[in-house]
């Protein structure tokens, strides 16, 4: 048999060498047609880094890593749960650039962050790589609803209530 492989030479998943060895052992001929890209102007967001451990109310930093083929400028937008947090003009050099954005979260929960870079079309060939996403989950104190019988004596559940509070739990008694 014969396979024609069109490739830019970049492995994204798995090991091509192992597959080629297997095909060679089966006497399958593999012809490679290289794909060349000629991007003189390309801007992309490599990643959006967030800390893994954040305490409630603490200020932390979102770090956006941008790579560009040439020097340029644009607008960096950071969103939290699809709401814009910040929009800042940025200048970047050719190569890898890092931009830090301070953030503070006031309540526990799941937070999804999206970074976008807007640049003039003449400076960028592929706009689909101008976005990066990441998320944070911030723990808060455990919350407990303690339901009591209004006919009962408070001393029947008071010690239990105190024990829950000593375990750093928010306890609401109804």
Question: If you had to describe this structure to a student in words, what would you say it looks like?
Answer:
This protein is mostly beta strands and 174 residues long. It has two helices and eleven strands. It has helices spanning 16-25, 155-166, and strands spanning 2-7, 29-34, 43-49, 59-68, 72-80, 83-92, 95-104, 109-118, 131-138, 142-146, 169-173. The strands form four sheets. It has a four-stranded antiparallel sheet with strand order 6-5-8-9, with no helix packed on it. A three-stranded antiparallel sheet has the order 3-4-7, with no helix packed on it. The protein has a two-stranded parallel sheet with strand order 1-2. Strand 1, helix 1 and strand 2 (29-34) form a beta-alpha-beta unit. The chain is elongated and about 85 Å long. The N and C termini lie far apart (75 Å). The model has no long low-confidence stretch (mean pLDDT 87).
**The biggest beta sheet, please?**
4 strands, antiparallel
Helix content class? 10-25%
Q: Please state the overall shape, judged from the principal axes of the Cα atoms.
A: elongated
Work out the number of β strands. 11
Query: Approximately what portion of the residues adopt beta-strand conformation?
Result: over 45%
Count of alpha and pi helical runs: 2
Taking Cα atoms only, what radius of gyration do you get, to the nearest Å? 27 Å
Task: Give the class from helix and strand content and strand pairing.
Answer: mainly beta
Which descriptors would you attach to this protein?
mainly beta, 11 strands, 2 helices
């Amino acid at each position: 048999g014969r396979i024609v492989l069109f490739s830019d030479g970049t492995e994204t998943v798995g090991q091509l060498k192992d597959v080629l060895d297997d095909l060679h052992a089966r006497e399958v001929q593999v012809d490679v047609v290289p794909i060349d890209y000629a991007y003189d102007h390309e801007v992309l967001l490599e990643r959006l880094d967030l800390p893994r451990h954040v305490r409630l109310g603490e200020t932390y930093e979102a770090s956006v890593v941008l790579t560009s083929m040439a020097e340029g400028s644009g607008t960096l937008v950071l969103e939290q749960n699809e709401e814009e947090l910040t929009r800042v003009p940025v200048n970047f050099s050719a190569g890898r650039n890092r931009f830090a954005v301070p953030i503070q979260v006031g309540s526990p929960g799941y937070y999804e962050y999206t970074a976008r870079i807007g640049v003039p079309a003449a400076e960028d060939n592929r706009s689909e790589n101008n976005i990066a996403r990441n998320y944070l989950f911030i723990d808060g104190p455990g919350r407990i609803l303690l339901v009591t019988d209004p006919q009962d004596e408070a001393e029947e559940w008071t010690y239990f209530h105190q024990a829950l509070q000593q375990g750093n739990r928010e306890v609401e008694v109804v």
